[in-house]
Hints:
CATH architecture of the largest domain: Alpha-Beta Horseshoe
Strand order of the largest sheet: 2-1-3-4-5-6
Oligomer: single chain
Strand content: 15-25%
Number of strands: 21
Bound molecules: S-adenosyl-L-homocysteine, FE3-S4 cluster
Largest sheet: 6 strands, parallel
Shape: globular
Amino acid sequence: MGITNPGPEPATRRLWIETVGCQMNVLDSELVVAALRRQGWEMARTQADADAVFYNTCSVRQHAEDKIYSALGRVRQEKERRPGLIVGVLGCMAQKDQVLVRTRAPWVDLVVGPGQLHQVPRLVDGILAGGGPQIEVSLDRKGGSREAIARSFESYDPDRDPAMRPTPFQAFVRTQTGCDKFCAFCVVPRVRGPEQARPPEAILAETRKLVAEGCREVTLIGQTVNSYRWSDGGVTTRLSDLLGRLDAIDGLDRIKFVTNYPRDMTPDLIAAVRDLPKVSHYLHVPAQHGSDDVLLRMRRGYSIGEYMEMLGRIRTELPHAAVTSDFIVGFCGETDAEFQMTLDLVRTAGFKNSFIFKYSPRPGTKAHERLPDDVPEEVKKERNQALLEAQAEVSLAGNRAFVGTRQQVLVEGLSTRDEKRSVDPGPDGMAQLSGRTACDRIVVFDAPLRLVGRLVDIDITAAAAWSLLGTVADGLADAVPLDELSGGQGSCGTAAGPLYDIASPPSRQTPSGV
Ligand code: SAH
Ligand code: F3S
């Protein structure tokens, strides 16, 4: 029998991916990378080392798009030097700008909307086979029947790859795609398509698999996660029902969910958060503004009175819950008096933190079509700053109440300080670590690196606006074998909270406007 020489192995191809935007994008990037890895691709160590450079993009604000066009400008020279380099634009900007991406940056080879990500491996093969640039996007939201549009936005939920997450013990799990709320300022319904729930069985099976692979915490994600509804054979599953079933999964420690829509914060959901031991007492429920008139112009569908009623129900049932919000300053026609109402809301509502954004007009939205963007940039900046300062005071006061308490913390990794120093302390060396409490507060402390991924008790010694400082309780870190340290009950808190900047792991976010 002759032995054939197969010749040299083809060189492994390497991928570099940058991610902007929300948790959906972080998850999508993880899944795209995993799919390409199954086709033999590896992660590049630097962009210069990559055979393909992908940008997973965000269209929520102009600033996020500008960053991508600048990055595309920078990669152009690399592409001129190495014409074989594949440059890809994925996600919301691909859906929104479609052909325009290649008009502005003709060196882009791949344009794929969020509803078509399952096609990336095939499209990449097409480019490698000499098929030229590839564009795949979903139907426009005005481009057909709801069913046809929904079908064209496919939820992308292939097998997970723990190696591809910033922390293997935490994972995002998608509950639904798209949004049907059509707030006047927001491009998400257009670029992410109609709201479509995933079947509960798929969510449960994915979570069980993640837990079997070592995941301790899941964060359910949906644009309006608490609008989740799945009906089958006359039985409706709401988010509260789903949480109940997830809570029963052995080996899972913490469950979080983002982002909530104020009107869908129903009593059954608040009761589920109260009663289910693994569910975080952390609720991100964006108010967006403090004035009824502005909320009306924003088409948010509730008044401040209704928002406060909802908040009151949370405070009664979950007195220690951390509630967080998003706010937009400088929305069309916002007067000083209207802005003052947002300031008053932040001063009185006791949010753990708020993500604050300057209004950015988005083509294709009702506000862009019908309302002038008439608040000067300088005024937007001033209001942004004033609101940040007000929130920082509230956050600091809230955090100070934790000094002297003991908190169960899921250890996430090196603190920002030690990450920046790039010192490798080795698995048993002491480092400055950071993690999150059950109510999503960031805690920084010195401990051995081997505690990463564990639940550890921390005594809180000091507070700043966006983080707490502490020490590992009673020398626990040295005394207790690793596996015993990890058997926590507790509710959750960690990599949730909206992600609004490029390539930053969720745990590194602090509230700020982009
Ligand atoms: N439901 C989504 C919201 C997506 S947009 C979620 O999962 O977070 C995130 C936040 O960006 C919104 O809550 C809003 O505060 C802000 N935002 C949306 N459109 C904006 C715009 N045109 N200008 C400024 N901020 C905007
Ligand atoms: Fe956007 Fe409003 Fe939906 S903010 S994501 S349209 S709930």
